[in-house]
Amino acid sequence: MKTIARLFAFMLVFQWAAAQEVSDGDKLLNRPADRTYDVVLESGYLKVGVYENFPPYSYEVNGEPRGLDVELGKRIAEEMGLEFKVHWIVPDENLGDDLRNNVWKGHYLAKQRLADVMLRVPYDKTYAYMQDSTGEYVNEQVVMFGPYQQETWQIAYNPERLESVDTVAVFQYHPIGVEIDTLPDFYLTSGLRGRLRDQVRHFRNVEEAFRAMRDGEVAAVMGMRAEIDHELAKAENREFRLAGNGFPGIGKQVWDVGMAVKQSHRQLGYALEDVVGRLVKSGRLEQLFADLNLRYGVPQYYKEFLSEEALAKAEGKL
Amino acid sequence: MRTNKFGIRIAASALALAVSYGANATVTDKDILNDANTPEDVVSYGMGTQGQRFSSLADLNTDNVKFLQPAWAFSFGSEKMRGQETQPMIKDGVMYVSASYSRVYAIDAKTGEELWQYDARLPDGIMPCCDVVNRGVALYDDKVIFGTLDAKLVALNKDTGKPMWIKKVADYQAGYAITAAPLVVKGKVITGVSGGEFGIVGKVEAYDANTGEKVWTRPTVEGHMGYVYKDGKAVENGISGGKAGVTWPGDMWKNGGAATWLGGTYDPETDSLFFGTGNPAPWNSHLRPGDNLFSSSRLAIDPDDGSIKWHFQTTPHDGWDYDGVNELVSFDLKEGGKTVKAAATADRNGFMYVLNRENGDFIRGFPFVDKITWAEGLDPKTGRPIYKEGGRPGNPADMDGKKGEMVLAQPAFLGGKNWMPMAYSQETELFYVPSNEWAMDIWNENVSYKKGAAFLGAGFTIKPANDDYIGVLRAMDPKTGKEVWRYENTAPLWGGVMTTAGNLVFTGTPEGYLKAFDAKTGEELYRFNTGSGVVGTPITWTMDGEQYVSVASGWGGAVPLWGGEVAKVVKHFNQGGAIWTFKLPKDRVASK
After folding, report:
1. Is A38 exposed, middle or buried (0-12, 13-18, 19+ CB in 10 A)?
2. CA distance B67 to B590
C-alpha cells in the first residue's frame, strides 16, 4: 500500500559521489547511454550498482567505496579487463523500485543515470516471474541472474543481559534492536501475537542498534547474518555473542543473492555470470568473505548441481 | 537603489500600478487577513486564510461566462513540464506563481510578460517521493516565500526575485520535502513538511517572515516535545499529546509518520491554525494497535506558540493509507436560527466532516462518495468511524508463503478527495468538492524484497469504481449532508475549485479543460482547453475594471505515477507547464 505522503523521499547524494561516478547519459535527449556488452567493453569501464551506506556490503570510507559487494564488483571488472566504477543506489521502497530507478529506466529526476549491473539482487524465480493483477510480468524489463551468496537472519546478544537466546520468546522480557522497516522489524513486532512488540526498539541501521546494545538500551540485535558478523568483528563489540535460535514463522529463512541487468543487455549478463560462476566455484568468493570476517553461504542454486567435492571447494573447505 | 535597466522598469511599472490602484506596495498582515474581501488582489493560498476560495466578484456570471476569453498564456519553460498544482497570487498587477521543480515566477498580470524567474538550486539527484509539484507561494511585506523539494523555505524579493533568506526546515536526506504553499499569520511563515513514512515525524513550524528565524515547532506525533525559540534558544513547550506511548505500542511513536504535507488554513475569529496530518507509519496497521495520535487528524494550533488547542482524528488506527491532510475550511453554519463557527473537511476516507471550529466538536459527518467499504458509518456523537468487519487489510505476518487474502477497499488510497482544495460559496452555502470514485485491492505479497533482503510487502492496485467516469465534482450541503448536484468526469479530478458570487464554480480537468458550472444547478456553462491537464487551482480578481481568471495547466501529480486500470484512462494525457489567464471584456459584462 502506498500513498503520497508515505512515499519515500529517498534522496541520492551525489555531491561526493560525482567524483567517483561517470556521467555518460545523453544530455540532449535526457536518457541513459544504452550500454550493451560491446559498448561496455569499448568504454573500458563497468558501472556496478551497489546500495549506499550498507555495511558490510557496500559503503564508503574516506571517499572510497568499500565492502563485500564493492570488492566483488572490482573482481568482476578486473576479470573482464575493465575499470570498476561505482554506481550508488539509494534504496527505494522495494526491489522493484530499485530495479526501475537503477537498471532499466532511471529515476524521473535522474534519467541519464543507470548502472550496467546491479548487485545484491535476490535470485528468486518466484519473484522474477511474478505477475501483476492484469497478468503482466512485473519484472519483464530486467534479467535477474548469477547468484553469488546465500543470506539469512541472525541475532547477536549481550551475554551480560541474557544467558542465551534459545528462542525468540525471551524478547517478551528483554529489549531487542532492529533496523526500521525490515523483516526483523515486522517479524518481532507481530510475532507471538504481538507479545514481543513492546520490547522492539527501532534504529536506522544495524550499526546504530549495536551502539544501543553497547549503551545497554537493548539486550540483542537482529539483522542479516553478514551485518551481524561485520559488527561482531569490531573490537567494541567483542563481548557480544551469536545466538543459535531459529526463526519460526519466517517464510523466507534463506535466500540467494545475485545480479540484475536490463533485459536487452543479456549478452553482458552472460559474461558476468561466467565470471561470478568462476569466483564462486573456485572458492575465491568465500575467501573474499573470510577476508572481511564474514561467513559465506554458497547459493542454493549451486548446491543443486555441484558435487560434494566441488561444493566443499566453493565453501572454502578444500 | 536599483541600478539595472530591468529593475528600473519594474519599479516604474509598480509605481504606476500603485498609483492607479491606490494599493500598498507591500503585503501586510492586514492585507492577508482581509484577502477574501479584496477582489483586486489574491495574497493568500485559499483566496482568504479560511480557505473558502470564494470571490465576491459578480461581473462574470452565469449569463456572460460564455464570453470569457483568453488574455494571455505564459510558459514555465525548460523541460520541466509536469505537475503544475499551483495557485497563483496577484498583487499590484503582478502575478506571483510557483511551478513544479521549485520554481517561482513574477509575471505582469496584464500582459503575461515575465518580470523575473527563480529556480531553486536543488541538490543533484534529489528524489522526492511523489512527483515534483509545488502548490503555491506566500506573500509578505516585500517578500515572496515558498517551500522547496529539498525542504527549505526561500524568501525572495518581490521586485527582483533575489533570495533574501533561505532556511532549512528539515533534512531532505532523511526523506523530507515541502510541496505545500506556506501560510503567513501575524508576521510568521507557517509550514508543514512532506515526507516518507519510515523514520519521519510530521511537524508544523513557524518562522519569522522578515528574518527566517524559527519561532516555534510542533511535532504532530504523540510523545514528541514542542519548542518555542527565544533569543536563539529552544525552550520546551510541552509534549504533543502529553506523553509518549498512550496510543502507540513500544517505541513506534518515535517514527510515527503523520506528515503535514498539505499545509494549513487559518481562522482569525478563533485565532487557530488548522493543519491536517498524514497516515501513521508503518503501513501495516496490525503492528501498531491503538489510535496512533495524531495521525490522520485535523489539529487546531495556536499561531503564537504552536500549542495544540484541539484535535479531531478522522481515521483512528488507519490501515488504508487514508491521510488526514485535506484542508479544513472555516465557514459560518447558519441553522436553527443560530450561527455556529464551523469548519468542514472532505477526507480521503470518503466522509465529509462538519466540526465546531472553536473546540473541535463533531457536528455531523456524512459520505461524500458513492460507496465506502471500510466503515459502516460514523458514530453520531463523536464522529468516530464504525469499522466494518473484514474491511481492514490483513496482517502479512499471518501468511504462510502464499498470496494473502485480497481486501477490496473504497475509496482507494488516493482518497475520495485528495490534495485538491474544495470551495465554499457564501451565496449558495454549499461546498464544491472535487472527488473521485475509485477502489483498491490490497493483498499481502508472497514474495517481496527490500534492500537485498527478504521482506513482507503488500501489493495493491487502484481501479475505477465505474466504467465511464472517475472524477465527480459535487455540490455538498453541509446542513443536510446531501449532494445537491454532481458533474461526472472521465479522468480523475486532481485540480482545485473556486466559486464566485457570479453563481459560478470553476475547476480544471486532466483532459485539459478549465470549466465553469452553474453553482446552483451544476450545469456546465464554459470550457476552454489549455493544452495539457489542469491540476492547478483557479483564482479570480479584478484589474482595470475587468474580471480575470487564471489557472495553471500541466498534467502531473500523483495520478500518473500509479499504474493499474486508472493508468489506461490517463496515460495519453500530455504534460505541460503554463499559466492561462482569461478575462471578461468590459463591454461584455451586460451581455447575455
Report:
1. exposed
2. 11
pLDDT at B239 over 60: yes
Residue B590 falls within a domain, yes or no? Answer: no
The predicted pLDDT at position B563 comes to 72
Residue B346 scores a pLDDT above 60: yes
Single-letter code of the amino acid located at B420: M
Q: How do strand B539-543 and strand B524-529 relate by DSSP bridges?
A: unpaired
- pLDDT (tens digit, 9 = 90+) per residue, A164-195? 999 999 999 999 999 999 999 999 998 888 89
Residues B289, A194: C-beta atoms closer than 8 Å = yes
Domain presence at residue B23 = yes
Q: What gap in Å lies between CA B509 and CA B534, rounded to an integer?
A: 5
Residue B4: the pLDDT is 47
Burial of B448 (0-12, 13-18, 19+ CB in 10 A): buried
CA distance linking residue B348 with residue B257, whole number of Å? 17
Residue B592 falls within a domain, yes or no? no
Is there a contact between A251 and B457 if contact means CB atoms under 8 Å apart? no
Q: What is the CA radius of gyration of chain A?
A: 20
C-alpha cell at B49: 486564510
- If one counts every other C-beta atom within 10 angstroms of the C-beta of residue B546, the result is 18
Cell 544504452, residue? Answer: A34
pLDDT at residue B303 is higher than 90:
yes
Q: Rounded distance, CA B280 to CA A5, Å?
A: 10
Same domain, A132 and A271: yes
* Cβ neighbours, 10 Å, residue B100: 25
Close Cβ partners of B233 (under 8 Å, ≥ 6 residues apart): none
Domain boundary among A192, A221, A242: A242
* Residues 178-237 (A) with a CB less than 8 A from some CB of B: 180-183, 185-187, 189-191, 194, 197-202, 204, 224
pTM of the full predicted structure?
0.90
**Cα dihedral B61, B66, B70, B76 sign:** positive
Under 8 Å between Cβ of A277 and A285: no
Sort out which chain B residues have CB atoms less than 8 A from A110's CB and list them.
125, 127
Kindly determine whether residue B397 and residue A110, on different chains, have CB atoms separated by under 8 Å: no
Nearest CA in chain A to B324: A5
Q: What is the pLDDT of residues B141-170, one digit of tens each?
A: 999 999 999 999 999 999 999 999 999 999
Domain that residue A276 falls in: 14-150+254-314
